[in-house]
Design goal:
Its main location: membrane. By secondary structure, this protein is α/β, with parallel strands linked by helices. It contains 23 helices and 26 strands. About 45% of the residues lie in helices and about 15% in strands. The strands form 8 sheets. The protein has a 7-stranded mixed sheet with strand order 9-8-10-11-12-16-17, covered by helices on one side. Strands 2-4-3-5-6-7 form a 6-stranded mixed sheet, with helices on both faces. A 3-stranded mixed sheet has the order 24-26-25.
């Protein structure tokens, strides 16, 4: 019993001593250990540019206190204490720290020099001495601050692990920042998620407001590059400073009808912007908050905040660090007092005694896990350098910062279910982003974990948990565009400098709008068609006269009959070859004419059926061969030429010359411009027929036509001069009548060809050819056949001689009569 009372009294005395004992206010900024870590946190950040008349360091504790940064500061202290209490990580090794309140970008160098100094002086590189009191530095808080101090650590490869704010993409350049690493994601990842927001909700007309420093300008540059190949337009951008005229800024955005505003800035700058928007009665806007202020604790509770619209943000997900709350409560339970024996270094003081543990715990928790993982990454790297094993480390190893850096780059360990690892640029390959929304109660709901690993995929962020957000998304979703999107089939016509500002013009018939180029209506192919305002072309139906068509059957039947006539006439002329009628009709030349007429008859069949390139060109060649046959026949039937050239046997020479001239024209024209089918769509919208370009070379076509016309004129001339020949030798009347029929037939064909553009053009062409052939056959050969079969008495040598004698006597009488009349 006595022993129990004694123990209780001892414990009571210890408690009374602990209550009266105090810790120095500077104790939270430094702690001794076997190895030191440096820390740079903006506990009292300077929110405006300071103008001083003398060059002196700034006293940070005189500036505005940042509770969120102070919470991160305490997270570093907690992490080191937790590591020191661990038996598996750095066993028997104690980590110490020296932390500075890095509140200014340019006025905090005494603390930096302290970290890279040894015994109060900065020493050059020597293998034999330790040139830095710290093995690594955790911090700083902004890109600009990091830009100013990082070169001092880079020159000696002191690892600098940044954990919030230093997200500018410039730090990924290892040639400039070789010992820089970070546990927060660079700006490019935030911009990528913002871009997904805009594309998902089809917001194409946006403003980008950014803090006018390295962090903000980098965000703007990345955003401008990302939207180059998209439908998004940057309607307005502005850098925010302490001198920004926010009412004027808001009026400019209102004048441009911008409903979506990206705010890529820090907490204190965002406060001024949002408060000004409340005062200016801005309504129904969408404010996209960057991760630096999306979890702001005070702004969502400001009166009138709901009127400005919807605040959507990107933030680090809330990750609870076990034991941190207990650490804060334990620390705040200790009394803080002045210690005259401990001289505080510059900016290692915080007048935070009025803060409660609840204030710290409930502060903005963003970027706390990056602090936690940064400290642990350094500890794991040191663990590898010291070759720590089961329960001990090799403290005899001289540790240099570059050795820690080498192991940091190879880091790969699990911390709170996250695999901490860095890529080749020192950027994290772990962590995620959350989509947050400020709800009506003034809080920030974490709505979706974007699952940010190596790449960012927020395509599914419509699966949200907040009822208010679902209502906003489906019912109240605002729009932001310069020009409303054109309907399908309407071409955009750009107006002004922005691609988002345009008018809409419907695509005419025969064109369509391709989604890859909304500024141009593309013409359909000849074998396709489209209605007005189409987005695609439809195939035309090929129109042709099939062999089963009644008109085709009729023409082909008459063609067969014509061939039968030609065969019969050929047999008849062969049997009566030596008779005067056959000899006067041309003799052997008759068989040439009949053979060519049969070939022309066969060409009629090429006018029907489905056309192909070979089939159609054969038809074209057949038509031109028909013209050559005409030349053969016409010259062969001219009795004047026969009478003049019979004794010289030159009639075949004339025919050969004409044949070779026309053949040369045909062959040269075909070689220079091969005949090919082309679709004729003149009378149709959804159909087409194939027609033939026989002479695309107009010179060749013109020369052929001129030559044929000259032959027609010569034929007419000789027909007229031979009008008084003997009856059985005079075919002039038949030839003249045949030519008149030819002219009438092809005039009717040309008229129909001009007026009609349907598939029955082939019927017209076949019919014209067939009638021409029948005209030649009946006008010239049928009369001869009539004499041979029904008037054999006229097919004798004596009968022809009597006709010649009568013709001679009549000619003499006419000459005498003419002579006497002249006297």
């Amino acid at each position: 019993m006595f022993t129990l009372i004694f123990v209780c009294l001892c414990l009571l005395c210890c408690n009374l001593h602990a209550e009266t004992e105090c810790i120095p206010k500077t104790a939270e900024f430094k702690m001794k250990g076997d190895y030191l870590l440096g820390g740079l946190f903006g506990v009292h950040p300077v929110s405006a540019t300071l103008h001083q008349n003398i060059p002196e360091a700034i006293i940070c504790s005189s500036q505005t206190f940042s509770l969120s940064n102070y919470r991160r500061f305490q997270m570093m202290r907690f992490s080191i204490e937790e590591i020191n209490n661990s038996t598996s990580l750095l066993p028997n090794v104690t980590l110490g720290y020296e932390i500075f309140d890095h509140c200014s970008d340019t006025k905090n160098f005494p603390g930096i020099f302290s970290l890279i100094s040894v015994d109060g002086s900065v020493q050059p590189w020597k293998e034999s001495v330790n040139f830095s009191k710290v093995i690594a530095v955790v911090g700083t808080g902004t890109s600009t601050a990091t830009m100013t101090v990082a070169p001092l650590f880079m020159m000696d490869l002191v690892p600098m692990v940044c954990l919030y704010g230093a997200s500018s993409s410039v730090f990924s350049r290892k040639q400039n920042f070789p010992s820089f690493l970070r546990t927060l994601h660079p700006n490019k990842d935030v911009i990528k998620i913002i871009l997904r927001f805009l594309e998902k909700f089809k917001w194409t007309w946006v403003a980008f407001l950014y803090i006018d420093d390295d962090y903000g300008r980098d965000g703007l540059d990345l955003f401008v590059k990302k939207i180059q190949d998209t439908e998004i337009c940057l309607a307005f951008s502005h850098g925010l400073t302490e001198n920004t005229d926010y009412p004027k800024l808001i009026k400019q955005m209102e004048a441009l009808r911008i409903n979506v505003i990206i705010v890529f800035t820090t907490e204190w700058t965002a406060e001024r912007l949002i408060m000004s928007a409340i005062q200016q009665n801005v309504t129904n806007k969408v404010w996209i908050a960057a991760d630096a202020w999306s979890l702001h604790k005070d702004l969502p509770k400001k009166p009138g905040i709901r009127n400005i619209g919807t605040v959507l943000g990107i933030a680090e997900p809330k990750i609870t660090v076990p034991g941190f709350d207990d650490f804060v409560f334990s620390f705040k339970d200790q009394n803080q007092c002045e210690n005259p024996e401990q001289d505080p270094f510059c900016n290692q003081m915080c007048n935070c005694s009025s803060l409660s543990a609840e204030d710290i715990i409930t502060a903005d928790p963003s970027f706390n896990f990056p602090v936690y993982s940064a400290v642990y990454a350094v500890a794991h790297a040191l663990h590898a350098v010291l070759q720590c094993g089961a329960g001990s480390c090799n403290k005899s190893i001289k540790v240099y910062p570059h050795m820690v850096l080498e192991e940091l780059r190879k880091s790969k360990f699990t911390l709170l279910n996250q695999t901490v690892q860095f890529d080749k640029n020192g950027d994290p390959k772990f962590g995620s982003y959350a989509i947050v929304i400020w709800n009506e109660s003034g809080d920030c709901d974490v709505s979706f974990d974007g699952g940010l690993k190596i790449c960012i995929d927020v395509n599914t962020f419509i699966l949200l948990l907040s009822y208010w957000f679902i209502l906003w998304f489906y019912v109240l979703q605002p729009e932001s565009f310069c020009s409303k999107e054109c309907p399908d089939g309407y071409m955009k016509k750009k107006e002004g400098v922005h691609k988002c500002c345009f008018s809409c013009t419907i695509c005419p018939k025969g064109t369509y709008l391709n989604t890859t180029d909304p500024y141009k209506c593309i013409e359909c192919k000849d074998t396709e068609w489209s209605a007005e305002g189409s987005t695609a072309c439809k195939p035309r139906q090929l129109e042709y006269v099939p062999f089963s068509d009644p008109a085709a059957i009729c023409i082909m039947s008459w063609t067969v009959i014509l061939l039968a006539f030609i065969v019969a006439i050929s047999v008849l002329f062969a049997l009566n070859y030596n008779t005067p009628v056959v000899r006067s009709a041309g003799g052997p030349m008759c068989f040439l004419i009949l053979g060519c007429l049969s070939l022309c008859s066969i060409s009629v069949f090429f006018c029907f059926g489905e056309p192909t390139i070979v089939f159609f060109c054969l038809a074209c060649l057949a038509v031109h061969s028909f013209k050559i046959i005409c030349i053969f026949k016409i010259f062969a039937k001219l009795p004047i030429l026969q009478s003049y050239w019979r004794k010289y046997h030159r009639s075949w020479l004339i025919i050969s010359i004409v044949f070779f001239i026309q053949a040369a024209q045909l062959i040269s024209g075909t070689i220079l411009s091969p005949p090919e089918p082309y679709p004729d769509t003149f009378w149709y919208s959804d159909k087409y027929i194939l027609r033939c370009y026989f002479f695309k070379n107009h010179k060749a076509s013109l020369s052929s036509c001129v030559f044929l016309f000259m032959l027609w004129l010569i034929t007419l001339f000789f027909s007229y001069t031979g009008r008084n020949l003997p009856k059985n030798y005079n075919e002039v009347r038949a030839i003249t009548f045949c030519m008149l029929q030819q002219i009438l037939i092809w005039i009717f064909f040309a008229t129909g060809y001009t007026l009609h553009h349907g598939k029955y053009l082939q019927i017209f062409s076949a019919l014209a050819m067939l009638l021409s052939l029948y005209s030649y056959l009946f006008n010239y050969f049928i009369t001869k056949c009539n004499i041979i079969i029904f008037k054999p008495e006229q097919n004798t040598q004596q009968y022809f001689q009597d006709l010649i004698l009568d013709y001679s006597m009549q000619s003499s009488q006419l000459v005498a009569h003419h002579f006497y009349s002249c006297l």
